[in-house]
Design goal:
The protein is mainly beta and 1035 residues long. Among the domains are: 572-650, Immunoglobulin-like (Sandwich); 660-732, Immunoglobulins (Immunoglobulin-like, Sandwich), CATH 2.60.40; 744-838, Jelly Rolls (Sandwich), CATH 2.60.120; 849-921, Sandwich (Immunoglobulin-like); 933-1034, Jelly Rolls (Sandwich), CATH 2.60.120.380. It has four helices and 69 strands. Strands 1, 19, 20, 21, 22, 23, 24, 25, 26 and 27 form a ten-stranded mixed sheet that branches. Strand 16 (249-254) and strand 17 (259-265) form a beta hairpin. Helix 1 (8-16) packs antiparallel against helix 2. The longest helix is centred in the first third of the chain and has 10 residues, at 94-103. This is PKD repeat-containing protein. Residues 1-25 form the signal peptide. Its cofactor is Ca(2+). GO terms for molecular function: carbohydrate binding; serine-type peptidase activity.
Length: 1035
């Protein structure tokens, strides 16, 4: 169709005809119910104010970044499921429709604007990716994210003030439960039908996986308490997504079976803390051939109780279906599909439960080919060859349902490559969004769809999140990058449309929330974002997503609303005074309605503002006073209310009785407060441990620097302001926890969050001081500090890496006591600890090296020695301005000639020595592969490595003028990751290319490579064997 001479309105009509309201004619069919019933699960009450729970340790720049659970890739059912690349499909015309709107806004521009109010920035948590999620209630915001100490959640009020957290999910789980081990992937949902919170995380282990669920007892997530339920899954519950419905909480995941899986949880009993009836597991929907990672996405309810789903409406599960990726030559080249299923739950007779296949929804052709159909990270970003993962395989978080009265609506979105080719590596990432509607008892149909991909072909939009307000307005959040000038690093933005706007276009344009400033090189990105609508007005959108500033990723929570939704309500005030019986004003009295509070001024006056029409109960409070009346019921009806006065009487107060018990283990003393107050409660505590350190915790532990007897004082203050103190003598000793130079302590063990502690006295003249942990199972973290015991936040050395192999070398040892702590990041056993040092004079090293040359390439081998130590560092000067610090470097000279090469070596005690040799290179000669030296076309086979270990480092010299450089890894079993770096050996954090996909098929390509030596290593994400490596280029 030629659109050049059409009017915008005519084009809009032409493009939308055939998009709206069409479904396949197939009737509903029941998939074999295939329900598997587990065991009932009892609730565990968590009656704690989250402000009293320890806060998860903050990640700081310079600390290591751990990797979150890796999305699982399972081999597809059959190999060649994709349609041939030459098979032509109908074009995706939707980006053109969006561009027509953007270029012709003037006569159609919506008479609205978006309004933003609150923006909350959250820093990096030491894990990649963050998986950020958010939801809101009338009074609270809960933000969930992966963290270095486990998945965490933080609670804010609606102004963005932190109320509690970050709190690890696992810290709320009962002792001994598998959910005490955090995996990743937080889920945060506010149940708008019950005014409660639903939280979930992956817990346990790959062999004993669990769905760890927390349901709030009240609408107050801070102090209202929680119910814990831990449900076992038969295999790793990868990438869970959940939805709230009136009869169940339904969650889906990626388990890699022949069918996709869904779980239903007993919402009714879980809201009441009753024993949850057995979870129902559904594995009856066949997975799509051709994808190694896939899952259904459940719809989740958004709205208020007056717009709950009709009783006849069952919860929907959905996925997108690019049949060119799944159906081979039988693919329908004129359209793609959204596959729909409904889930029916019978809690009394589970055999009646089942999943029903609904008529699938035809949609405009889209393209899920992002370089191929399997690689995760594929979207370009400026300034780096590292790529971002658009999560092409699923409908992204969340699939949002609304009952809008005259119709029901579902909105969702997923990734598409706007470049239509189903071959090659060109990616132009966009977001396909859609709205489905159902009227009465009819079928779900497509109301509208669009592809949001504004900008040139080097501009990318990915990782969307979508929701609808009570007017039917739609908001879409997303990341965007741009590799052409002016470049855009991974940034966060949103767009939207009003319900009355022309179908298929986002009319709000691009709205930047926060801009990125650097490339993300971890290979992991996003996974979950979330958009929710504030139940207090059912208009304000709240979203969260990641962006990439300098340093490391951050997240941003942002609210905004369309000005046509929810006219600003009129608000009023309630005022009065609080005074003594003689009329003297009492200052500092808190007067609260339960959700709004204020304090009296110096005259005893108060005013509560911004109150809507309604009934309120006012309650005054101040320690040491009673009030008459104890509360007042006040109705606001279109006017301010005054004269709401209270009389306060100072109460007599019996002071508290301070007391505590304690126990010791080595240098660690653990204290338990047993203080009482006969006429009130203990409001605060102050501990003095007798060594100039203090604490305000209820039941603290303290590690002393040395053995001895200490006077420990506990001072308690009650809610009436009276205090009392008690002092006791506490004796601690080294208890055998003393390290002897060079003597290994074996068999150390601790459970998650606990630690073992040692000391070591170091004399004058000690050199080469080093503390090392090794062996055993689990994950132990080493802490070392001179002069006092280290803590989570105070230490001289903390390597903080995965596993139990860590060391803390001390460059210049101090005379005195070093304190060593081994803490369980995850429970560990069988760990060994060694502290060692040397006292001797230092003989300088002897520098020496050998070399060989091939054409312009010289390869050097360091043969230096040190009679009383080791070579700590090397500095090579190749005589042409080039340098290196590698042990055995190779160097490519620009031209033939004889060069003076100098090697300077420094030993572990700081002494140096140098040697210089003449090296001659010529422009002739060829390449002979040997050992770890690769030549053009070399194939290395049979490579293997165990988990977290590397193969040898291979090198390939690429001459000037070479093109189409390629390193290909393939074959074998397990999960290998390819790393390539120019100039020196790659590491997990420093590389030129790292595809980082599941399986063993990865490629690093360079169309116009820089001349020089390329270093290649393969690391075992999981143990692998039988892998092949090929290196080639065009001379």
């Amino acid at each position: 169709m030629n659109f050049r001479n059409c009017t915008y309105a005519g084009i809009l009509l032409a493009l939308l005809l055939g998009c709206s309201g069409s479904t396949l004619a197939a009737a509903e069919t029941s998939v074999s119910n295939g329900v598997q019933v587990g065991e009932p699960v009892s609730a565990v009450g968590i009656d704690v104010d989250l402000r009293d729970v320890p806060v998860a340790a903050a990640w700081r720049p310079g600390m290591p970044i751990k990797e979150a659970h890796k999305r699982q890739f399972f081999p597809p059912d059959r190999i060649n499921t994709a349609a041939p690349s030459w098979l032509l499909t109908e074009p995706d015309r939707l980006p053109e429709l969006q561009k027509l709107w953007d270029d012709n806004k003037s006569p159609f521009t919506s008479q609205y604007r978006s309004e933003t109010r609150v923006s909350i920035n959250n820093g990096n948590t030491g894990v990649s990716p963050g998986d950020p999620v958010v939801d809101v209630s009338a009074s609270h915001i809960i933000y969930g994210v992966n963290g270095s100490s486990g998945t965490t959640f933080t609670i804010y009020n609606k102004s963005g003030t932190k109320l509690a957290g970050p709190t690890t999910f696992s810290s709320l789980a009962p002792t001994g439960d598998g959910c005490r081990t955090s995996v990743s992937d937080p889920i945060v949902l506010f149940d708008r039908l019950a005014n409660r919170w639903f939280l979930l995380e992956m817990g346990g282990s790959s062999s004993a996986a669990k769905m760890c669920i927390y349901v709030s007892k009240t609408s107050d997530p801070v102090s209202g308490g929680w119910w814990f339920y831990g449900f076992t899954t038969p295999t790793q519950n990868d990438y869970p997504h959940c939805g709230v419905w009136n009869d169940a909480y339904v969650c889906t995941d990626n388990e890699g079976q022949s069918n996709v899986t869904a779980y239903a949880y007993d919402r009714a009993n879980m809201l009441n803390g009753a024993t949850a009836r057995a979870q129902q597991r559904f594995a009856s929907v066949p997975k799509l051939a051709g994808y190694g990672f896939q899952a259904l996405t459940p719809a989740t309810f958004m709205g208020d109780t007056s717009h709950a789903p009709p009783a006849s409406t069952r919860q929907i599960l959905a996925r997108h279906n690019d049949d060119e990726a799944h159906a081979g030559t039988s693919a329908d080249t004129t359209r793609d599909f959204i596959d729909l299923y409904s889930i029916n739950i019978d809690w009394n007779t589970p055999s009646n439960s089942g999943i029903t296949t609904l008529p699938r929804i035809p949609i405009t052709e889209y393209n899920s080919w992002f370089r191929n159909y399997s690689t995760f990270a594929t979207v370009p970003q400026p300034g780096s060859t590292s790529l971002l993962d658009p999560i092409r395989e699923v409908i992204l978080n969340s699939l949002v349902y609304r009952n809008l009265g005259s119709y029901e609506s579902i909105v969702g979105q997923f990734a598409t490559n706007v470049n239509a080719a189903r071959t090659g590596t060109v990616v132009n990432a966009g977001i396909r969004w859609f709205e489905l509607r159902r009227i009465g008892s009819g079928n779900w149909t497509l109301q509208q769809e669009g592809t949001f991909a504004p900008g040139d072909t080097n501009t990318h939009h990915l990782l969307g999140t979508i929701a609808t307000d009570n007017k039917g307005n739609i908001a879409l959040g997303y990341n965007n990058t741009k590799t052409s000038s002016p470049t855009v690093y991974a940034s966060l933005g949103y767009t939207g449309r009003m319900a009355s706007d022309p179908a298929g276009v986002m009319t709000l344009g691009e709205n930047n929330v926060v801009s990125g400033a650097a490339a993300e090189t971890s290979g992991r990105w996003g996974d979950y974002y979330q958009m929710a609508v504030d139940p207090s007005d059912d208009c304000t959108f709240w979203m969260v997503g990641m962006y990439r500033p300098s340093g490391s990723w951050n997240t941003r929570i942002q609210d905004f609303k369309f000005s046509d939704c929810g006219a600003p309500p009129s608000t009023y005030s309630i005022s009065g005074t609080v005074s003594t019986g003689s009329g003297v004003g009492i200052s500092g009295v808190t007067v609260s309605t339960g959700s709004v509070s204020t304090t009296t001024n110096s005259s005893g006056a108060y005013t509560l503002t911004s109150l809507a029409n309604g009934s309120y109960t006012l309650t005054p409070s101040l320690g040491g006073y009673t009030f008459s009346p104890t509360s007042r019921s006040v109705t606001v009806s279109g006017a301010n209310v005054s004269g709401q006065n209270f009389t306060g009487t100072a109460a007599s107060n019996n002071p508290p009785v301070a007391n505590f018990s304690f126990s010791t283990s080595g240098l660690v003393a653990s204290f338990t407060d047993t203080s009482t107050d006969s006429d009130g409660s203990i409001a605060s505590r102050s501990w003095n441990f007798g060594d100039s350190t203090t604490s305000t915790a209820t039941n603290p532990s303290h590690t002393y620097a040395s053995s001895g007897t200490y006077s420990v004082t506990l001072t308690v203050t009650d809610n009436g302001g009276a205090s009392n103190a008690v002092t006791k003598s506490v004796t601690v000793s080294g208890g055998g926890n003393v390290l002897v130079n060079g003597v290994t302590v074996s068999g150390l063990a601790a459970t998650t969050g606990n630690d073992v502690n040692y000391t070591m006295d170091v004399p004058a003249g000690a050199t080469g001081l080093n503390f090392v942990i090794s062996g055993g199972t689990g994950d132990a973290d080493l802490y070392v500090k001179f002069g006092s015991a280290p803590t989570d936040t105070s230490y001289d050395c903390r390597p903080y890496s995965n596993g139990n192999s860590e060391s803390c070398p001390v460059a210049t040892a101090q005379v005195g006591t070093y304190y060593v702590r081994v803490k369980a990041y995850a429970s560990f056993t069988g760990v060994s600890l060694t502290g060692s040092y040397s006292i001797a004079s230092n003989n300088p090293p002897t520098a020496n090296f050998s070399f060989s040359s091939s054409a312009l390439v010289a390869s050097f081998t360091d043969s230096s020695s040190d009679s009383d130590g080791t070579i700590a560092s090397r500095s090579w000067n190749f005589g042409d301005g080039g340098t290196s610090t590698a042990t055995n470097p190779s160097h490519t000279y620009a031209s033939a000639g004889t060069y003076s090469v100098t090697l300077t070596v420094t030993d572990n005690d700081g002494a140096s020595n140098a040697t210089t040799k003449s090296v001659t290179v010529s422009s002739g000669g060829g390449c002979t592969p040997s050992g770890t030296v690769l030549c053009n076309g070399t194939v290395i086979t049979g490579l293997s490595a165990t988990k977290n270990n590397w193969t040898s480092t291979y090198t390939l010299v690429v001459p000037a003028g070479a093109t189409n450089l390629s390193f290909n890894m393939s074959g074998g079993t397990g999960d290998a990751d390819l790393y390539v770096r120019l100039g020196s050996a790659p590491t997990t954090s420093s590389y030129t290319c790292r595809p980082y996909t599941s399986g063993n098929t990865e490629t690093c390509s360079f169309a116009a490579p820089t001349a020089g030596t390329y270093y290649v290593r393969i690391r075992a994400y999981a143990t692998f064997s039988g892998v092949s490596l090929t290196a080639s280029y065009t001379p």
